Amino acid sequence: MTQTLSDLFANNRAWADEIEGRQPGFFTKLLHQQTPQYLWIGCADSRVPANELVGLLPGDLFVHRNVANVVVPTDLNCLSVLQYAVDQLRVRHIMVVGHSRCGGVMAALGNLRVGLVDNWLRHVQDVRDRHRALLDGLSADRRVDALCELNVLEQARNVCRTTIVEDAWKRGQEVVVHGWVYGLHNGLLEDLSITASGPDGVEPAYEAALAALHRRFGDG
Fold first, then answer.
1. What's the total number of domains in the chain?
2. Has 113 been annotated as catalytic?
């Protein structure tokens, strides 16, 4: 349903009143603290509202979003968020979260020309090319779903390989990296079981999660 900008301000007032009614003084307290335990790295898709999906209020979840939830060492925006979350906020969990029927993944899979974002999606095409043997054996719909999940595994591993996370682990800081996928069709999150809490666990977690993905999609 189309809404005017005045509707959005009215919705905002209603939301703020509801929060304040449930927790008097909530926003005053929020001014003086930001202590989230979680960093969510997800897709910019408007159908994936991070806080709402996991039932967390403002202040509980630090969020970075971009097209197709990509994490690469040349993206200073993402790395700045990651560094602030790990070094300053001391988050304990980092979740890379993809979602089914991701438009960015679909464009990368089909070599669709969209515009400037085509250059960004080259990173997802690299994932596609790396796992071509699996993807080529799947139907069109399953190919999209598989690449969405493969992209999560690759990006979660990329998080683990950043100097930020590596340095945190080296100094003994508790940081656990996870890879999840969100189903637009049912509203549920699924843990893809790529979970790493130290440098020695990254590759075993990746290989185990990749093997499980192959089994789910009928290849071994």
1. 2
2. no
43 in catalytic set:
yes
Whether residues 24 and 121 share a domain: the answer is no
Can you say how many angstroms the Cα of residue 33 is from the centroid of all Cα atoms in its chain?
A: 24
Question: Do 115 and 130 fall into the same domain?
Answer: yes
3 and 78 both lie in a single domain? no
* Catalytic annotation, pick one of 7, 13, 17, 47: 47
Active-site annotation holds for 47? yes
Same structural domain, 190 and 150: yes
Residue 19 has pLDDT above 90, yes or no: no
Domain limits at 11? 1-33
Torsion of CA 65, 69, 71, 74, to 10 degrees: -70
159-183 pLDDT, tens digit per residue, is 999 999 999 999 999 999 999 999 9
Q: Is 102 one of the annotated active-site residues of the chain?
A: yes
Choosing from 43, 78, 148, 160, the catalytic residue is 43
Mean pLDDT calculated for residue range 33-48:
92
131 is catalytic: no
Residues 16 and 57 in one domain: no
Selecting among 64, 78, 99, 178, the annotated active-site residue is 99
Does one domain contain both 49 and 143?
yes
Q: How far apart are CA 202 and CA 2, in angstroms?
A: 45
Please choose, from the candidates 72, 53, 56, the residue with its C-alpha nearest in 3D space to the C-alpha of residue 183: 53
Q: Would you state the pLDDT for residue 3?
A: 83
